[in-house]
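Lab notebook, bench 4. Continuing the backlog of folding jobs that were queued last week. Each job is logged with the same field layout so the records can be merged later without manual cleanup. Today's entry covers DUF4402 domain-containing protein, a 170-residue chain. Filled in by technician R.K.

JOB TYPE: sequence-to-structure
TARGET: DUF4402 domain-containing protein
LENGTH: 170
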Amino acid sequence: MRFNICLAAIAATVALASPAAAQTSASAQAEARGLVLQPLTLTRVDDLDFGTVLASATAGSVTINENTGSRSVAGGVTAVATGPGQRALFTGAGTPGQQVSLSMTTPTFLISGPNAIAVTSMSLDAGGATTRTIGATGTFDVGVGGVFAIAANQPNGLYTASFDLTAQYP
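JOB STATUS: finished
OUTPUT FIELD FOLLOWS
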């Protein structure tokens, strides 16, 4: 019996040790693909305007809410109702459902001749989110607000500066 088991083990070893036929080719399949997006656009609808205010012997500030466009004043600044101001508003367009990244370059000062008003901050709506998803209609909106420091006895004038908002596909 032991002899039969030995012969069976030797036969199995010889069968496994037989040379296999060499493989001379192989193939695999892959997919070729790419995503085509609509060109991205961004258009200014409204400028950021802190409105008309009266300065006094006490410094203060003007704030334009980036979500609603509402204005508030603090310190020695008085709001003039006929010039309520507004947030900047931009409308973008692109491929529905795609995300865009936003970045903003803001000025340090608004200038009127030799005079300046410090830009304390500027911010994007939606809690400052720098990523937006393009809606089903292919559009998205971005609001921009800010805080402007009015010095004591700020000289009168129209104070301006440019800022840039950029949108791009990530």
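OBSERVATION: The first strand starts at residue 41 and ends at 46.
SIGNED: R.K.
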